[in-house]
Amino acid sequence: MPEREEGEPRPSPWRIAGPAAWVLAAAIPLAFLALFFLWPVLSLIATGFLENGRIDLSGIPEVFGAPRTWRVIGQTLAQAGLATAVSVALGLPAAHVLYRLDFPGRGVLRGLMTVPFVLPTVVVAAAFVALTGEGGPLAGLGLDRSLWAIVLALAFFNVTVVARTVGTFWARLDTSSELAARVLGAGKVRAWCTTTLPALAPALASAAALVFLFCSTSFGVVLVLGGREFSNVETEIYRLTVQFLDLRGAAVLSLAQFAIVGAALVVSARLRSRGERAVSLRAEAGRMPRPGRGDVPALVVFGLMAALLHAAPIVTLLLRSFRGPHGDWTLANYAALVSPPKGLPLDGTVFDATWLSLRIALLAALIAMVLGVLLALVLSRKPESRALRRALSVFDGAVMLPLGVSAVTLGFGLLITMNRPLGIGFDLRTSVALIPIAQALVALPLVVRTLLPVLRGIDQQLRFAAATLGAGPAVVIRTIDLPMLGRSAGLALGFAFAASLGEFGATSFLVRPGAQTLPVAVGQLIGHPAPGSYGAGLAAAVILGGLAAGIMLHAERLRTDGRGEF
């Protein structure tokens, strides 16, 4: 590799690929986000604040003056705060076991730990209803329709976020300070608390902020497990929009949610950046020790968490899907999905819903991958200009917004704006075309967060050397960046496919008669009063959960290292 002479200026990464190329790479996903995310969301909010063509802000004091509004906001913060605390408390031991110890089957356990994060929300909600509801093994504890059922269900998803975010950081953490403390006479616990824990604090705080973001915008779990009594901002927006057509109230609550989401995104981004600068990280994870006596507490907590929080609800869901209304073992619930009896809210058979869901999810995943690769290429650059670095930081936060904005707001906003958008002669609302678009918006941040750490880990000298040897912008990207993505691109595609397959919030708004997706079918079956509908809903949830888990486990086999924030 040619070496740069003393005093020779280092070429900017923006010059290597050419400014026009980077502008185009950023403009394509920006245009997609502006058309299908920003415009619908802002249009819905504007609709709530317009009266006869004039701005009317009287809804703000009216909504915030209602006691229920503050109760809903308080419940949102309480649910998210408690779920975040539980996720961090259980995710830290999981990170230690999976990323700091070496034992047979560790890779399989890592893959299994990823599955809960991508399971559809309606599947997890159905599992916890089966576990804590009438006839469930925990029915006597009074957890059904309770705050703690919601908190545990939210933790079910987000322990994985903490374990992976903290674990990948911890695996590359320089542990020489902890070893020095041990040499000086400190016990293992004291040495860890005084050296390693402070070093992990930025990663823990960043993971906690991200988990709080996910929990504060949860829809399916709170809708199924909490009902109206334990509504959060997300489900309250849905109630105001669908049941009362109160766009003014929904718009005001959307602003409150934007404030919560914006604060969580800012905190997460700053803590993640601070964590990258604050400690010494190795380029790759070092050799990990075998489990010892001192690791027993972490192993016990991890085992109990995996058995009680993750396995118990899913096993209960599976078993109860084979139970009839009188407790007898039967295949009637699955038979009802193949040949639906009259009265069940199914448009066709489970095969129809599954085939439609798979096609839509695949299209959404491909859209998210194309846009995600472009965004990751742009965001992975480190320009010398301070203004450009700040612009990229803002851009990075903007890409995460679809994860934090109400799916209900997005879905209803798309219905308002997609009547022949930009003058095209086709009403997008009359087809299923909007569903893969909405699902791609949800999957896009996951794709970016999976690919970005890989691209940021590329040695910049490789790009400089290729440019020095005469490689053009496209050649640099084709021969260096894209090959480095390799199997991580397959993992990102799996994330996008599984997340799109289980998307429920926006899809429930956009689904058309005769085009019912599997998550929507599960939600409608579980909540329908028709005889046999609940059992059929459990069976459909098992099918949906099995599909999502299978996709994610296959995608996890493509992971070659521990990089990636999810």
UniProtKB/TrEMBL annotation:
Keyword Cell inner membrane: yes
UniProt-listed GO biological process terms: transmembrane transport
Entry superkingdom: Bacteria
Transmembrane segments: 21-42, 77-99, 111-133, 145-163, 200-227, 247-267, 296-319, 356-379, 391-416, 428-448, 488-511, 531-553
One Pfam entry name: BPD_transp_1
Keywords: Cell inner membrane, Cell membrane, Membrane, Transmembrane, Transmembrane helix, Transport
Record InterPro entries: MetI-like (IPR000515), MetI-like_sf (IPR035906)
Domain ABC transmembrane type-1, first and last residues per copy: 73-266, 354-555
Membrane topology note: Multi-pass membrane protein
Keyword Transmembrane assigned: yes
Subcellular location: Cell inner membrane; Cell membrane
GO cellular component: plasma membrane
Family to which this protein belongs: Belongs to the binding-protein-dependent transport system permease family.
Name of the molecule in the record: Iron ABC transporter permease
Organism listed in the record: Leucobacter edaphi
